[in-house]
Amino acid sequence: MNGRCLPLLISGSLFVSAAFGGSLDPGAGTIRVGVFGLFHSRQLTIHPREGRPFTLTCGEKRFRIEGSQSAQLTLAGQAVECRFGGLAALSTEVSILNPDAVFVLEIPGKIERHYRGALTVRPSAEELQPVISMPLETAVASIVAAEAPANADAGALEAQAVVTRSYLAAGPRHRNLNGGSDFDFCDTTHCQYLVEPPAPGEAVSQASSATRGMVLRHQGEVVRALYSARCGGATQTLEDVGLTPGKYPYYRVPCPSCIRTPDRWTRTIERQQASALIQQPDNETARLQIVRRLGWQALPSNNYQVSTTASDITFQGTGSGHGVGLCQQGAMGLASEGLNFQSILSHYFPNTSLASINP
C-alpha cells in the first residue's frame, strides 16, 4: 500500500501476532512481516549492521556473524543451504532468534534493506520466504516512513501513524486469505508498504512515538483504517468502489485540499484491456486488475468519468488511490492550517474515538 497510491485493502487487515495472548500490547507484541515476496528470490545474503553481530541458526549449526562477514542462503529443493566462510549447512529453516537483532537482508544485485527483529527463512513454492518478526511500533514507524508524503507536517504524520497502527491491530490479512501463511502481513502495497525503520530523531519516528498505542475505535472495535494519496475532492464509501462493507461505515467526507487542487488526469486504454471496468464501473478490484498489468499510473484512481469509442476507453478523473478513509493530501492541508491529528482523524473517520491498546 504505497501511501502515494493505496491499491486495495478489501476485508482484511494485519494480525497482531498471538504473542499478544489476546491483548493488544505493542510493547510485548510482534508483527510477522513477509518481505521481498515480489522478487521470488532463490538466494539471499545476510550481514550485520551498525557493528552489531548476530547468531544465525541453520538446523544444528550456529554461525556468529560480525563485522564485514556475511552468510549466503540458497534454495536447495525443500531446504535452505546456508554458507558462511568455508562452512555449510542444510536445513528446512534458517533463523536469527534475537528479537532485537539488527541486520541487512539482501537479494544480490536487486535490493537490500536493514531490519530490526527476529528472522526466519524457509523454502516456499520454489523460492525463499524471509519473515521478520518485529515490534508493533517498529512496524508502524517503518510503514509511515514508506507511506507518508515526505513533506508532511507533524499533525498529518501523527494521523497517518494512528491509521497505520489501527490497520495493523484490527485483524489478520494473509491468514484470512490463505489460512496457513508463515506471516500475517507482507511489505508490499497489497497490505502496507514497509521499508527500513527510520532513525529515532526523524519526524516519522517522533510522530509514531507521540501516538504510541493509539488506535481508532468504532462501537468498541478497532477500525480497519484505510487511506489513499488523494481523494480528488471527497472520500468514498466502500460501496462506492465496489468493496464489501465492513463493520465501520466509511463516509463520504469533503476534502478542502483536494477540492482546491484536485490533481486531474486523463488516460486512454484499449477497450479490450479495460473490459473489466466496462462490466463493473468504479470497481476497485477491476481497476487493480488493469493497473497490475499496465502499471499503477495507467488508472490512478476510482474517481473518473468515462467516454468510449469502438476501440478505446478514455478516463478523465481526479485523485490517486481508492479514496476511502484518510486522504493523505487532505491531511497535509488540514495540518498546514494548524489542525492536530485528533481533528484530522475526526474529519476523515466520523463517529470514531481514539483509544489505547496498551493494557
Give a description of the structure.
- There is one protein chain.
- The chain is α+β, with helices and mostly antiparallel strands and 359 residues long.
- Among the domains are: 43-125, no CATH class; 216-352, no CATH class.
- It has helices at residues 136-147, 154-169, 174-178, 203-210, 256-260, 275-279, 284-294, 328-336, 341-348, and strands spanning 30-34, 43-48, 54-58, 61-65, 71-76, 79-84, 87-91, 94-96, 102-107, 111-116, 118-124, 127-135, 185-186, 214-218, 221-222, 227-228, 264-270, 304-308, 312-318, 326-327, 353-356.
- The strands form 5 sheets. It has a 7-stranded mixed sheet. The protein has a 6-stranded antiparallel sheet with strand order 7-6-5-2-9-10, with no helix packed on it.
- The protein is globular.
- The two termini are 29 Å apart.
Core attributes:
disordered N terminus; alpha+beta; 7-stranded mixed sheet; about 30% strand
**Secondary-structure-derived class:** alpha+beta
Shape: globular
- CA-CA gap between termini: 29 Å
Number of helices: 9
Query: What percent strand?
Result: 25-35%
Overall pLDDT confidence: 88
Strand arrangement within the widest β-sheet reads: 4-3-8-11-12-1-13
Order of helices and strands: EEEEEEEEEEEEHHHEHEEEHEHHEEEHHE
Biggest sheet record: 7 strands, mixed
In the predicted model, the low-confidence regions spanning at least 5 consecutive residues are 1-28, 176-180
Compute the CA-based radius of gyration.
Answer: 21 Å
Helix content: 10-25%
SS elements, strand count: 21
